[in-house]
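FORM 7B: Structural annotation worksheet

SECTION A. Query
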Amino acid sequence: MSGIVAEEVCGSPLKKKTLYTLDNDRLIKVKSSRDGSTYGFGNFLYEVFFPEGYPDSVSKDYLTYQVFDTIQAFCSYVNGTIATQSVLTGLGVGEEASTALAATMTWVLKDGVGMIGRIVFAWAQGTDLDSDMKRWRLRADFFNDVATFLDIVSSQTRYFAFIICISALLRSIVGIAGTGTRPAIILHQARRNNLGDVTAKDASQETMVHLTAMIVALVIMPWIAHSHLLSWTVFFLLAFIHVLANYCGVKSLNLEQFNQSRFHLAVSAFLNSGGTFVPSIREVNRQEPVIVPLYRKWRYSIGCRLPRRAVSGGDFIEMREIYGDEVFCLMVNPSKGHVAVFLSPAATPADVIRAAFEVELIGHKLLTHFSVRDTVLEVMRQTRMEAGDLYERFEKLARNEGFDFARNYLGARDWRLTWRSPDARTADFMVM
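SECTION B. Predicted structure
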């Protein structure tokens, strides 16, 4: 028998290690061990509920977020059980005077309102769920608690059908917001092209949490069912923990992709430092507000349509002169504190980040270096000359911190603009 010819290792830190040797031209396993763990049921559960290769196969904030997500899911399920009892009471379960038809009609009406709500909300806010994912996730869980509260009080009023329809409407927002924001989190957590594995293990964790919460609900429901004081006490306690866990969960996420808030924080720190410093991913995410929008004096929209007003020939010529053959063009509205970014059909995600950087630079100049003798066009012209070198420096520093420039959540819309020279016979270039 010869010496060790092969060594297999799987997983970290729970490494499974196997050593092989050659014996008569055959591979023979001579040693098998698991470093940092022991054989048994605990290791089995670890493999069932965590992605393969954990923690190296997921983001560093994976465990923290999943812990808070587990807590909030548990609280939500138990509160949902309390609300279900109240809704069933309102539908007449246990009352001789109630009819199955009346209960069915009320239930169908509630579901119908929820379906309409899901369609309308997805149409109205679907594009903002990626760019404002943390805040929408927190909002959704707050709406879920409000909907649960309405379900509980519904059976105690004469307006049962109306109240549960409002509750269904809120839950439709919860469903779309939760479903729409979850892929961005999974995509952030999966680090080894293991999107399916992370998604599947997340579903397993959620199922286990719901199973545990169901057992707890079965134990406590007979205890609190006949006491309004106990029911409300349990509800408000779990609702508080639910919202707190969600807040801690979204704050624990350290996303490497820029949205407008994270980009503003990073670029502002860079410009205020004289172009020498970009904060870390963790620091930018820590500063990003998740309850109210980040206050910014200047706001911008990317991928805009031209405003429905006349653009003078002078403005048209100035804009063409400033941006030339650039794949984006900016229009600053000082009175509204807004910058519209028009994109060419050739613009790429990298160009979107460059355009957003130029907007931030213009806003910074207008707030810190703008004088009454300057015009907005002069500031835009000066910014255009400085933006190239500054952006290269910013990108280099940001990449060193780990920020991702391949994807972004800056909220670019799909409108694309191709400038054409105005008719020589027309004094103004009219936007229809």
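SECTION C. Observations
The first helix runs from residue 41 to 49. The mean pLDDT is 85.

SECTION D. Sign-off
Analyst initials: ____
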